[in-house]
Amino acid sequence: MEMEPNDLTRIRELFDRIARVAAAEEWNDKLNPAQHSALAYLARANRFSRAPSNVADYLCTTRGTASQTLKALERKGLVMQTRSDTDKRSISCDVTKKGRAALGATNVFDAALDALSASEVAALTQLLEATGHRMLKQRRFRTFGVCKTCRYHRHTQDGLACALLDMPLTQMNANELCHEHDLPVTIGRSMA
Fold first, then answer.
1. Which of 96, 121, 100 is nearest to 110 (CA)?
2. pLDDT tens string 73-106
3. DSSP labels for the chain?
4. Cβ distance 8 to 46 under 8 Å?
5. pLDDT for 99-154, tens place per residue?
6. pTM for this predicted structure
7. What is the pLDDT of residues 29-41, one digit of tens each?
8. What is the spatial distance between Cα 126 and Cα 190, in angstroms, rounded to a whole number?
9. Nearest one of 22, 24, 104, 34 to 62, comparing CA atoms
């Protein structure tokens, strides 16, 4: 079934309007939308994906812009940047208790999603993931998916593991975002 040009325009308008309403609500005296997005990403990112370069890649922005955003979040006490003990060039950004509290408020977007039925949520999730993956693939951006949806996620005799990094995972890790995420072969093929 081929879409009509007006259908595409309407979908684009809906995406834009929803994004603008959500961003307008994120803009408050504490955070701007970029800071909110960076904070939300870091709160969901696994331990391998909290470097400033990962934040830049996730937000599809420059490293300089991401660095300024992270510095602002650090000044506000919402994130803490720490250097690796083994590689002093490596920095990890962790969300503070205050940062998690800043993300905890329910907003209009959350309330609208909560009003959907389970089947509507499942359908919307599937459509948005397919759309997002196609866009990311076309632009050659990383998927930053949830660990348990990655082609390298494994269930082993010892528990969960990442086959790419050869690291054990917890159940919590399986639900976190990862910059090493790669689409399963079946999804990748269906998008080609």
1. 121
2. 999 999 999 887 777 778 899 999 999 998 877 6
3. -PPPHHHHHHHHHHHHHHHHHHHHHH-SSS--HHHHHHHHHHHHB-TTS-SHHHHHHHHTS-HHHHHHHHHHHHHTTSEEEEE-SS-TT-EEEEE-HHHHHHH----HHHHHHHTS-HHHHHHHHHHHHHHHHHHHHHHT-----BGGGSTTEEEETTEEEETTTTEEE-HHHHTSB-TT----HHHHHHH-
4. no
5. 999 887 767 888 888 999 999 999 998 888 888 878 877 877 777 778 888 888 88
6. 0.75
7. 578 889 999 999 9
8. 13
9. 34
Give the separation between CA 57 and CA 63, rounded to whole angstroms: 8
Task: Check if the beta carbon of residue 52 is closer than 8 Å to that of residue 38.
Answer: no
Measured between alpha carbons, how far is 187 from 189 in angstroms, rounded to an integer?
5
CB-CB contact of 15 with 128 (8 Å): no
Residues in contact with 98: Cβ distance below 8 Å, sequence separation at least 6, in sequence order: 76, 77, 78
The two tokens of residue 24 are 């307008």
- Which residue reads 């803009």 in tokens? 27
Phi and psi at residue 161, to the nearest 5° = -155, 155
Domain ranges of the chain: 13-103, 116-191
| Tokens linked to 11 | 């979908």
Give yes or no for a contact between 47 and 95, defined as CB atoms under 8 angstroms apart.
no
> pLDDT > 90: what percent of the chain?
30
Q: Which CATH architecture does the domain made up of 13-103 adopt?
A: Orthogonal Bundle (1.10)
